[in-house]
Write a structure and sequence with these properties.
Elements: H1 17-33, H2 45-50, E1 58-62, H3 66-69, E2 71-78, E3 89-90, E4 101-105, E5 109-114, H4 115-125, E6 130-132, E7 136-142, H5 143-149, E8 152-155
Parallel strand pairs: 1-4
Antiparallel strand pairs: 2-3, 2-7, 4-5, 5-8, 6-7
Length: about 160
């Protein structure tokens, strides 16, 4: 398998969502390492589906626009393409894997939650679920709530 298969073909091409997500995951890993929290990420799709994103059970999600909107976009289901015949697959906080810690944000702010808290919020508050491009279902969590309920908030600028 070509290790550059997810890289843009041209140096000035816009990187794929996969590449952007991996780079953010690396950024978060470096930030956590400053507190001696070392992650062993699993890179293959096989082991990510079988076990989870990493051996420690941390899910890391890049939310590029969160500081522009003042809210986190919490994923709950996905499809491979916009096709009404395809079933929704639980993802994000509803995915059944080893995740117990949910980390989401961007290069300005990162929120770290217990996954159980996000599940309780979703089940009890029943926030409105929105579809994006017919392939992702999510709800929005305002920063005001996120700041109160996060186990930890890391800031790297002026959010």
């Amino acid at each position: 398998m070509d290790s550059n298969q997810h890289s843009p073909a041209y140096p000035n091409a816009r990187p794929s969502a996969f590449t952007v997500g991996l780079e953010f995951q690396d950024f978060v890993c470096l930030q956590l390492a400053k507190d001696n929290i070392i992650l062993q990420n699993l890179g293959s799709k096989l082991y990510q589906l079988k076990i989870g994103e990493n051996l420690q059970g941390f899910e890391i999600k890049y939310d590029e626009r969160c500081t522009d909107t003042g809210r986190l976009s919490i994923e709950i289901a996905e499809k491979s393409r916009d096709d009404q015949a395809l079933p929704w697959t639980p993802s994000g906080i509803l995915r059944n894997d080893n995740t117990w810690l949910y980390i989401q944000g961007n290069y300005q702010v990162v929120y770290i939650f217990a996954k159980t808290w996000l599940l309780r919020y979703f089940n009890e508050r029943k926030p409105e679920v929105k579809e994006f491009n017919g392939t992702i279902r999510r709800f929005f969590l305002p920063f005001e709530t996120a700041k109160i309920m996060a186990a930890k908030v890391l800031t790297f600028g002026a959010p």
